[in-house]
Amino acid sequence: MKKLAKNMVLCMQPVPQTIVSCRDKEGRNNALVVGFTANASLDPVMVMVGIVPSRFSHHMVKETGAFVINLPKKSFQKEYNYLGSRSGRNGDKFAALDLKWEDAEYVNAPILSDCPVSIECTVIESSQPGTHELFIGKVEAVHVDEEYLDEKGNILWNKMDLM
């Protein structure tokens, strides 16, 4: 027999372990760990990320209308922990970690080169129904390390050692 859970916070598990990277209007890069990430539409392809407005990256995504979702491998745990426990307000996280990155092709945001999957997104709408502002992003491009693609361009999720 099922019982009612007393604590409903984070009742959906597991959630993807993601790092959202973004850039402000002055060209400063930042990245943060985001626990609220999901597919939002198949056609057009869209995803959703939820960011608390008090987070340093929130204004960057809001102002530029762009972000990249990066999916880290387990070997990126140290960097993931750092990005999830520090604020860009207090210093350049990219410099502190000597993160490898490259400019996205379609949006004004950085791609984390050490992550096997990076999803470029343009914000098409947002709403704040609760603690997080939900940014709906149209997927502009999905970058995948070549070793994780089959001959037809399909992503081989089972071959990755994602967090």
The H/E string reads: EEEEHEHHEEEE
Strand order of the largest sheet: 2-1-5-8-9-4-3
Mean of residue pLDDT values:
95
Could you tell me the number of beta strands?
A: 9
Radius of gyration: 16 Å
Strand content: 35-45%
Number of helices: 3
- Class by SSE composition: mainly beta
Assign an overall shape.
globular
> In this structure, how is the largest beta sheet organized?
7 strands, antiparallel
Which CATH architecture is right? Roll
Range of helix content = 10-25%
Topology:
Layout (H helix, E strand, L loop, with lengths): L17 E6 L5 E6 L1 E7 L2 E7 L4 H9 L1 E6 L5 H9 L7 H5 L3 E3 L6 E3 L4 E11 L5 E12 L19
Antiparallel strand pairs: 1-2, 1-5, 3-4, 4-9, 5-8, 6-7, 8-9
Q: How is this structure best described in words?
A:
The chain is mainly beta. It has one domain (18-159): Roll (Pnp Oxidase, Chain A). The chain contains 3 helices and 9 strands. The strands form 2 sheets. A 7-stranded antiparallel sheet has the order 2-1-5-8-9-4-3. Strands 6-7 form a two-stranded antiparallel sheet. A hairpin with a 5-residue loop joins strand 1 (18-23) and strand 2. The longest helix has 9 residues, at 56-64.
